[in-house]
Amino acid sequence: MSVKIKRIYEDASKNDGKRVLIDRVWPRGVSKEKAQLDEWLKEVAPSSELRKWFDHDPDKFNEFKKKYKKEIKENQEQKDALDQLIKWSSKGNLTLLFAAKEEKYNHAQVLKKLIEKE
């Protein structure tokens, strides 16, 4: 099992395995064909309020991680979506796709760690 994270704007690879978009909003400028998605699991994404508060600010990342994990724990829809990602990762390679320009400080990093912890 391998969990990777990748910007949706990067080309698909044979090693990606199952490709899952984990953003709440469809990424600008990407056609469904180009995305080569297997799934779009928008329910696992942070709430709009949390996403806007965070705004990919590296100084807020530690607090964002705490709030996002708490949000997942308290929101059944997000929890179910995370459980689905865990199931898929146990069956082979899983690539979490996101649109943010910020590659180091984003929700994909948090999800990757949560999935690998399971």
UniProtKB/TrEMBL annotation:
It comes from the Bacteria. Pfam families: DUF488-N3i. PANTHER family: CYTOPLASMIC PROTEIN, CYTOPLASMIC PROTEIN-RELATED. This is DUF488 family protein.
